[in-house]
Amino acid sequence: MLYFLLSLVPLIWLTVIKSKKSIHMLQQNYYDESNRYLLWIKNNLKKVFLSYDLVLFIIVVGFILNNVITNILFALLTLFAIIEIKSVKEQVKKPLVITSRVKRMFVTELVLYSIILLVMILLFNENNITVYYLILSVVTYLNHFVLWLVNKINIPVEKCVYLHFKHMAQNKLFSMNLPVIGITGSYGKTSSKNILNDILNVKFNSFATPKNFNTPYGLIRSINQYLDKFNDMFIAEMGAFKVGEIKTTCKLVKPKYGILTTIGEAHLESFGSRENIQKGKFELIESLPSDGVGILNGDDPYQRSYKLKNNCKILWTGIDSDDVDVRAVNIKLSGSGTTFDCIFKGDKNKYTFNTKLLGKHNVYNILAAILLGREFGMSIDELKRGVASVKTIEHRLELKPYGKNYIIDDAYNSNPVGSKMALEVLGLMDGKKIVVTPGMIELGDKQYEANYNFGTYISDVADYVILVGRNQTKSIYDGLIKSKYKKDNIYVINDVKEAFPIINKLATTKTYILLENDLPDLFNE
User: Fold this and answer.
1) 3-state class of 309 per DSSP?
2) Selection from 286, 339, 282, 337 nearest residue 310 by Cα
3) What is the pLDDT of residues 169-181, one digit of tens each?
4) pLDDT at 165
5) Is pLDDT at 521 greater than 60 in this prediction?
6) Which of 141, 234, 254, 259 has the highest CB neighbour number within 10 Å of its CB?
């Protein structure tokens, strides 16, 4: 038995390595919310099943050697699997965060494996050693599913933990009696949140959820850890993958004000249809009280056509539409920012605003913030100062120097409208233009078409294209070729890090590099 137990040391090491990878994917798939983790497994069968430890239980089946040699071979084979797995250098963009939930999962997994090993020790029989190895090898090989089971086992515990911190957050928020502003939409939520926060902070001490904390868990953490007694108002970004999730979030924080950015095809795969996206996003506006205020985009047909089931005050923003409460005209985009005039309903004057932000979609976000700022009693001068002070938003058309050249960092999760606007911004620049992209995701049946069209738009703007991921970007490549784009100007790589040596070689004169989208680790090829 001693040799048997010693031979399992490498297997324990391998299990730890695989468990970290499995939990990492679980975490990035929101702990299998709406079966996202199982869907990831379905879409990545090669990555899940064609692993080096597959050889372990295949060879174990054929073991007819004496037990000591079996122990040694098993340990050596496990070490080989570890070396091969460790030698594969995967690009990690968002590392595993060791949260309390992750620690609880590790403990549950340890208990499961300990039970299996304890049963083997208590019933140990040298004649069955090959069977023991087979069982342990299979369990290790299927680690992705073991962690899925662990996640399910922990659901009752996680619900109790969630309810505890939820009650803490609600008690804290409602005792402070703050105005709560909800922001949602298919895209532009984080930009709109940051813009509104910067503008309101000219007059108030507002607090916005940090980073992309836009789930109920993220909002609870934001309230419990970051919201303090000096804040005058709370801005809550609200994300969703299916109908009903925004409504649940609204029950948590009870917003009185709401901003709906744009309704598009982001997360179409999980929502199922654009109509479901429309219904899901409007849950914010329909959750507002009768004395609440909703800010809608008058240029968005999916907002204009919706039959709203709420009698709260509705204000409209627009650029192309004139039947709105605030409209932006004379928009001038440049490499240094954007200038535009504001026309308010019932006011014949025009007010000029300046911002460092790039892109027409940011004008919509600013207009929504301006309208809400006026609702809170901010003057035109305060609003102008606020708009001028808005900071560039990380990974969202963020212009950054790169040696003598510039990077337009639009690496946050892209969408058909946002990617097209990013190309419009790139087209304004006076120099060589390079696009680096892995394409767009989570668009369901429309994903190929959207990326194909993206390729055709790129062909009109970019001098060179660097595609990240051969399989992921095939539709973009097809769109480029269909548009008669020069093949010699297309580079296909598997890791975004490989793009920069290519860029350095191509950037012989002043160059602007658009980084459009940066897929999370679960989409690595």
Assistant:
1) coil
2) 286
3) 999 999 999 999 9
4) 96
5) no
6) 259
